[in-house]
Structure formats: structure tokens, C-alpha cells
Amino acid sequence: CAPIQSCCAPVKTGCCAPIQSCCAPVKTGCCAPIQSCCAPVKTGCCAPIQSCCAPVKTGCCAPIQSCCAPVKTGCCAPIQSCCAPVKTGCCAPIQSCCAPVKTGCCAPIQSCCAPVKTGCCAPIQSCCAPVKTGCCAP
User: Fold this and answer.
1) 19-54: per-residue pLDDT in tens?
2) What are phi and psi for residue 5, nearest 5 degrees?
3) Is there a domain that residue 20 lies in?
4) Mean of pLDDT values over 90-98
5) Domains of the chain: total
6) I need a surface site. Which of 8, 52, 62, 111 has the fewest CB within 10 A?
7) Where does the source fall among the domains of life (predicted)?
């Protein structure tokens, strides 16, 4: 539709140039220059208003939220800076525990980041046994 709209992407993107100049190969929900994110898939994030173009939808957008983890973690930076490879239920800096699995413990409120759920959290409870023992120090 040139010259008013000059975007001729291989598929319908919802973006048209020069009013909107994003011609991503798929519809992203983002248009440039108003929104300049042209990620290969729809991420729910658009630049420069939101500049996160992660390969999958993370629920986080930069610079408002700058976490672009490969999977959805429930944590977003800089408001929450935990980008663990899996969802842990903990977010930094509010909660700084980024254990590889969900432990039920979060630092610095709870600083136990055992590799498995132990039922114990430090410093409230400082027992971080590798398995659940039913015992917590001190």
C-alpha cells in the first residue's frame, strides 16, 4: 500500500511503513519507529517503549522490565532481576534466590537455596540439607 503505507511483509504484520516501519516475518504486535521490536515471534514486548525481544514470551519487557530469560520465570529485571532457567517463585533483588528448582526459600528474606525443597530456609531456619529432613537449624 505504498506510499502511504509501504510495508509489504510476506505475511500480515499489523505494521506499515513509513507510519510504522516494522516488517517482521510474522505478526509481533510491535511496530517501528513507534515500537521497534521485530522479534521472530510475538513476545508481548515492544521497543523502544519496551525493548525486550526474547525468543519466547517471558512476561518481562525492557527497559521497564529487562529480564529476557529463555523461559517465563515470573521474575522481571530491574524491578525483579532473577532470570533463573526455570520458575523458582523467587525474584531478585526483592528475593535473590535463583535456585535451579523451586525450593520454597528466597533470599535475602530467606537465604536457603538448596538444590531441592527442604522445608528449611535461612536465616529464619538455617538447615539446607540436600534432602528434606524435617529438621532445621538453629
Assistant:
1) 344 444 444 444 444 333 444 444 444 443 333 444
2) -130, 120
3) yes
4) 42
5) 1
6) 8
7) Eukaryota
